[in-house]
Amino acid sequence: MALGKLQKVLISDSLDPCCREILQAGGLRVQEKPGLSKEELLREIRDCDGLIVRSATKVTADVLEAAERLQVVGRAGTGVDNVDVEAATRKGVLVMNTPTGNSLSAAELTCGMILSLARQIPQAAASMKEGKWDRKKYMGMELNGKTLGVLGLGRIGREVATRMQAFGMKTIGYDPIITPETSATFGVEQLPLEQIWPLCDFITVHTPLLPSTAGTGWVPARGDLEGGWRSPPPLTATPCAGLLNDSTFAKCRRGVQVVNCARGGIVDEGALLRALRSGQCGGAALDVFTQEPPKDRDLVNHPNVICCPHLGASTQEAQSRCGKEIAMQIVDMATGKGLAGVVNGQALSKAFAPQTKPWIALARALGTVLRTAGKQAQGSVQVCTLGTPLREAGSYLTPAVAMGMLAGGAQKEVTLVNALLLAQEAGLKVTTTHSDVDPETDGSTGLLEVSLPGTPHRAVGTVQGSTPVLRELNGVTFKQPAPLAGPVLIYRAKASEPSTLPVLAGLLAKAGVQLQSYHSSGAVAGEQWSVVGLSAPLSDLSELKPRVTEVFQLHL
């Protein structure tokens, strides 16, 4: 995937006109074709660099496979449940969303649902339209003094909590990532799930649909809109018992009211219907369903259920905001300004920062050097960052090393998005460590060390200015750091061999190739390494090979 080369973007769902306008103003060609069939989408996507969807388009593995030039899928909304993130990652396609675009709209709908449950407003309104005047039937409850359990304390969850506190509700909640100290700042007391169930008069869920939230438990993952949830399951995954299921309903206060404006499947619909029929659940408000639209109408038709056709983001403000945000994110990507809302390529987002670009180039170069010198693209690779400036750099340097190790292999295009996944599939295990101690420099820049455990192959480099340089190779230190950029010839020869340089000079003259730089290492066991920067690769090394122990060319 070539960053900054986006040209054509397909919008396959209905979005605010500002989305198209911003993309066009950013120099991109835009095709806006909402409502495409699967077959039509497969045809239209072939020559597109970007795809923008809302909820209707399902970006499945076969759609991604048909997209020969696709670089990015942008979802104008929260979550990416309709995108096969694993398939996109494998192909090196970036997936991004707009995690803040519909937060307020979804939070306000949730609050409206809570109010509607408390006062049975939809049922009373429907009764009036039938010509009835049934005041006694629709006796409600006050929210003041009631306890609201908020499961998921990301942006939407906290917006709901603060709004319902204005009605005098006590808010308790749970989130495996947000700390109790943080949630306390917006008035939510965090408790273990087992303590939450029996305390709540109302429960509202604000998590993504993951195996952990569609299953019987919840394992740690970041808050619903904080941008760091694990990728959703493949689109073919079979739904299982939700976070609210028969077991958890049995632990709840009798008559508990449940709201789900997040994702269908987080609340087990079968368990919810059973709880409603038994009276264990006093009412439910649903904006989302496991299957949309729902074919089984038992839940929809239950008298104590309020439901909407997935309206959480259906406000003019949210649609405009999401359309604007995803368009600006894609234009920023196309122009090299940066990345936001990234779901599967956090390492790639670092590639736009001027200070990290040369380090990423260095990591890829060291990986390429070791793959060639070590003659292996399988087994273990150890990446070690040294020095406090690189304390957080492993997250983006490790995929870059993997890119170098896989370069020229059987895999298709390897990018920072898919490098670690493809490395794993190729039998390459890449591990990362860090030490604040930088023994070889003044500590102001740091060092990157890449090695093949169990072998003598080890490369150490740093960045000088904006240039990646090699400091050490296989235990031998260079007298002056050797630049790793462009066409590079690397060879090992006897330090006492006088004819190597004249032969190399003759080859360069014969090929019309200019010598850009020459750096040699100290001698170990009578041999030394040389790194030669060239204006172009040499096509024939046959005259040089008899005079060296080993030689290889790279384009870095």
Q: Can you describe this structure?
A:
It is a single chain. This protein is α/β, with parallel strands linked by helices and 556 residues long. The protein has 4 domains: 8-100 and 316-341, Rossmann fold; 102-215 and 239-307, NAD(P)-binding Rossmann-like Domain (Rossmann fold, 3-Layer(aba) Sandwich), CATH 3.40.50.720; 345-479, 60s Ribosomal Protein L30, Chain: A, CATH 3.30.1330; 486-555, 2-Layer Sandwich (Alpha-Beta Plaits). It is 31% helix and 22% strand. The chain is built from 18 helices and 22 strands. It has helices at 17-25, 38-44, 61-66, 85-91, 103-119, 121-129, 155-165, 180-185, 193-196, 246-251, 269-278, 298-301, 316-334, 346-350, 357-374, 394-406, 419-425, 500-511, and strands at residues 8-11, 29-32, 50-53, 72-75, 94-97, 147-151, 170-174, 189-190, 202-205, 256-260, 281-286, 305-307, 379-386, 428-435, 447-451, 458-464, 467-473, 476-483, 487-494, 515-520, 527-534, 550-555. The strands form 4 sheets. It has a 7-stranded parallel sheet with strand order 8-7-6-9-10-11-12. Strands 14-13-15-16-17-18 form a 6-stranded mixed sheet. Strands 2-1-3-4-5 form a 5-stranded parallel sheet, sandwiched between helices. It is elongated, with a radius of gyration of 29 Å.
